[in-house]
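Researcher: Sequence of HTH marR-type domain-containing protein follows. Predict its structure.
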Amino acid sequence: MTIQKYVTKQPLEVQTFFAMVDTTAHLVAASEKYWVSKNLNGARIRILVEIAKAGGNILPSVLAGRIGVTKANISAMLIPLEQLGYIHTASHPEDGRKRRIILSAEGERLLHDVMPGNRETIAENMKSLDEEELQQLLSLLHKLHKKLD
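Model: Prediction complete. Tokens:
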């Protein structure tokens, strides 16, 4: 069997998958370029955003699940954010053995300052689609995501 079977003339489902991967990589690169221009790291910002989305505090295990990393990895990823003063930890109010990650005022300020520019960058990169196409794409992505859950 030749490898060409797996790299050329792929079924539509496989072609579509790789088109999504390639497009996503380009969009993520544009977003990351913005973060680099601000001397920031997109992965760290994503963590801060997830904490903010959770109301400003979250358990490390929940955060790890939301960004798709292990509990050990999330612990390592949180260290620089705590050193920079963007987060701090506190005991869980109901279970003192657990720790919560809390977005600090400095972390909130950072997000407030840099998120608008990033969202403008993202919007600019999505302008090749009109509003109806964006709604259709969003609907299709939700449908696909629901099937994968």
